[in-house]
Amino acid sequence: MIFWDLDGTLADPKPGITGSVIKALNDLGLPAPSADDLEWVIGPALLWSFERLGAPDPEAALDAYRRHYTGGGMYDCSVYDGIPRVLEDLAAQHKMSIATAKPHTYARKITAHFGLSQHMIHEFGPELDGTRNDKAELLAHALSVTGVDPARCVMIGDRHYDLKAARANNMAFIAVGWGYGGQDDLSDADAHVKTPDELPGVIGSLIG
């Protein structure tokens, strides 16, 4: 089975996520970095990001973020060029699922809106209360639900959170050259790809 990260791997969510973070910080009277200086928040759990941003009450900041995000920011993103065609090709040979740090209640709306969900067997993400915010725990849960052998699976993502989750679950990992992992150490990945078109061949070499 192929497990896909969502943000930074299948879709570019920067405008919606960073814009909602900035609005949330403004709501709370806190200084807000520029959108370009907030790219690091794309990937990990946002509660952790608000802690790092110095929000005195990260839960209140997260609540403010969610008001803006569900008010429109959720769909202020775009699917990366080449992804729809690659998903269609891969779906003919492999079972696929989403494994994202974004709460699944949001992720499923986004994947449905952009036509990605039709290729997925399952869509895994944390609960709104933070359950399974840790991506390694999320991926372990996904393996438990699907019953698949991790030796026959691959995780595809752009951040070190994805790599660590794959390694914690004895799973192969492919690092994508787009997204927001530019500052992350992804040297331990089983493979690196620069474009979506490279994925089918690399996946075939790893899991058949």
Automatic annotation (TrEMBL):
Q: Which SUPFAM superfamilies match?
A: HAD-like
Question: Which segment of the chain is annotated as a signal peptide?
Answer: none
Is Metal-binding among the key words of this record? no
- InterPro entries recorded: HAD-like_hydrolase_sf (IPR050155), HAD-like_sf (IPR036412), HAD_2 (IPR041492), HAD_sf (IPR023214), PGP-like_dom2 (IPR023198)
- Chain segments annotated as transmembrane: none
| Keywords, sorted A to Z | Hydrolase
GO CC annotations, alphabetized = cytosol
Q: What is its EC number?
A: 3.1.3.5
Gene3D superfamilies in the record, alphabetically? HAD superfamily/HAD-like, Putative phosphatase, domain 2
**What EC class does the entry list?**
hydrolase
A molecular function annotated in GO for this UniProt entry is:
protein tyrosine kinase activity
Q: Coiled-coil intervals in this record?
A: none
Which Pfam families does UniProt cross-reference here?
HAD_2
Matches recorded under PANTHER family: 5'-NUCLEOTIDASE, PHOSPHOGLYCOLATE PHOSPHATASE
Tell me the protein's name. 5'-nucleotidase
Record organism: Aliiroseovarius pelagivivens
Q: Tell me the lineage of the source organism.
A: Bacteria, Pseudomonadati, Pseudomonadota, Alphaproteobacteria, Rhodobacterales
